[in-house]
Amino acid sequence: MVKMTMLARVTDGLPLAEGLDDARDLKDAEMYKQQVKALFKNLSRGQNEASRMSIETGPYVFHYIIEGRVCYLTMCDRSYPKKLAFQYLEDLRNEFERVNGAQIETAARPYAFIKFDTFIQKTKKLYQDTHTQRNIAKLNDELYEVHQIMTRNVQDVLGVGEKLDQVSQMSSRLTSESRIYADKARDLNRQALIRKWAPVAIVLGVVFLLFWVKTKLW
């Protein structure tokens, strides 16, 4: 059964649309939504190059496809047929590109295409019952194969992003500490120069003052 559907722009992870009625009665719905957002963030960094993938998370599976700079993602029960999940996403992709394709790149705010929820809900209903004649025919469609689509664990996928975040944070911290060290080093060098040349400057100043006084008196 389809539990959740979300669309995001791959280049920056900006959420474009989602099923508004999705996950209403789903336990830990917020946790799964956070996982989806983390996945979109990873995709925006180019960390997962597969254009189609299934990601296991608890009793569910995220399925996604990437087409035309957009990631179409759905979360289904593990028992839900993989072939139907990806055909559901293909239907969403075809309609979204037809209606909103020209505006994807210029979208500036999250959920700019929230009205697409109407089509999401209508299409989701068609795919909920796997035993309808329509869906049985789709399952038997030998032209649409999903066996080669990779399946991974959510911790494996998101763990890569977390490790890179840690490396990035460490790099930023080291850069900041290096700047502080460099500033302190410059201050110490400045103070050393002052201590070295201050007596000379004082002596020269006294000599100049005496010379000036002498010229005035003469």
Report on the structure:
The chain is of the alpha+beta class and 218 residues long. The chain is 54% helix and 17% strand. It has 5 helices and 6 strands; from the N terminus they run ββαβββαααβα. A 6-stranded mixed β-sheet has the order 2-1-5-4-3-6, sandwiched between helices. The longest helix has 64 residues. The radius of gyration is 31 Å and the shape is rod-shaped. One of its GO terms (molecular function) is SNAP receptor activity. It is a single-pass type IV membrane protein. One of its GO terms (biological process) is protein transport.
| Beta fraction | 15-25%
* Contiguous helical run count: 5
Low-confidence stretches: 161-171
Report strand order across the widest sheet.
2-1-5-4-3-6
Q: What distance separates the N and C termini? A: 108 Å
| Shape annotation | rod-shaped
Whole-number radius of gyration?
31 Å
Order of helices and strands: EEHEEEHHHEH
The chain-level structural class is alpha+beta
Compact overview of the structure:
GO terms for molecular function: SNAP receptor activity. Residues 6-120 form the Longin domain. This protein is of the alpha+beta class and 218 residues long.
Which features would summarize this protein structure in a list?
single chain; 218 residues; alpha+beta; six-stranded mixed sheet; rod-shaped; 25.3 kDa vesicle transport protein; Longin-like_dom_sf
